[in-house]
Design brief:
The protein has 259 residues and is an all-alpha fold. The chain folds into 2 domains: 179 residues, no CATH class; 53 residues, no CATH class. A two-stranded antiparallel sheet has the order 1-2. The radius of gyration is 21 Å and the shape is globular. Bound molecules: zinc ion (3 copies). The site of one zinc ion has 6 residues, from loops. It comes from Agrocybe chaxingu.
């Protein structure tokens, strides 16, 4: 499991992670600083008392139902009860609440299937199906990125473009990730594979000034060169002297520390 530290997190840390994985679109979530990722959920948790959330949920206020489920799922501000949280989320998913709310509920349920204490044998496939539902409802959040990374980095699933249509919900995850990656330059922080050739050996991170969430892993110079056409858009490299052949200058600078 990529996130084997989850059970050891404090309730508030679980809340932060679950919130950030399920609510903001992945595209904006990945641009947030580490501080913002902590503060945004913290303010949310502190500014509204659980008692008010509970009352709102009882009145069928959908935001409060989702919030109450999030608190119960993580034991943050409310006693932990994963089963009740899951039931509340399933109710929202099957309701006629607006699709953006149902999409968040599907993400939260997806997250809970992966992280819950007593894991279900087919929890992973439930999680993927719920995540696909959320994508279908127009919401692509970090939980979808996380599930894609589990498939590709941990289960070593490779899905060529022409195999995706027949791969069901997993095919959707792969397609959406590719588009997200192209739009944002996103690279997984703890990637286990070279982005260019897929090997797991001798990986080094790009030494340019690309943002941490955009740093690709390469096995060698050839792979870094091959990927440059894609990565150059996201990698700001200081060019010391004007060189008519800028790309070459960039490589030299860039790879000097890679040895
Ligand atoms: Zn099941
Ligand atoms: Zn490589
Ligand atoms: Zn770079």
């Amino acid at each position: 499991m990529i996130n084997s530290t989850y059970p050891h997190l404090r309730p508030q840390e679980k809340y932060e992670l679950m919130y950030m994985s399920c609510y903001p679109p992945a595209r904006t979530g990945c641009l947030l600083t580490a501080q913002e990722r902590t503060e945004i959920p913290y303010f949310r948790l502190k500014h509204r008392d659980t008692k008010l959330v509970q009352e709102g949920a009882a009145r069928r206020d959908v935001d409060d139902i989702l919030e109450y489920a999030l608190r119960m799922a993580t034991g943050s501000g409310a006693p932990q009860d994963e089963d009740i949280a899951m039931k509340m989320l399933m109710d929202v998913i099957e309701s006629d609440f607006p699709s953006n709310k149902r999409a968040v509920a599907a993400n939260l349920a997806s997250f809970l299937f992966i992280h819950r204490t007593e894991s279900d044998e087919d929890g992973f496939s439930h999680a993927v199906e719920l995540c696909q539902l959320s994508i279908h409802l127009g919401h692509y959040a970090h939980i979808a990125v996380f599930l894609f990374l589990m498939c590709s980095q941990e289960f070593d699933i490779v899905l060529p473009l022409d195999a995706r249509a027949d791969a069901g919900p997993i095919g959707v995850l792969f397609d959406k990730y590719d588009r997200f990656q192209e739009e944002t330059g996103f690279q997984p922080f703890k990637s286990t594979h070279c982005v260019a050739c897929g090997t797991k050996r001798q990986l080094r991170r790009c030494s340019g000034q690309c943002a941490p969430f955009r740093k690709p892993m390469y096995c060698n110079r050839e792979c870094q060169k091959a990927d440059w056409v894609k990565h150059r858009k996201w990698c700001v490299v200081p060019v010391i002297e004007e060189d008519p052949d800028k790309d070459t200058a960039v490589y030299r600078l860039h790879l000097a520390s890679a040895g």
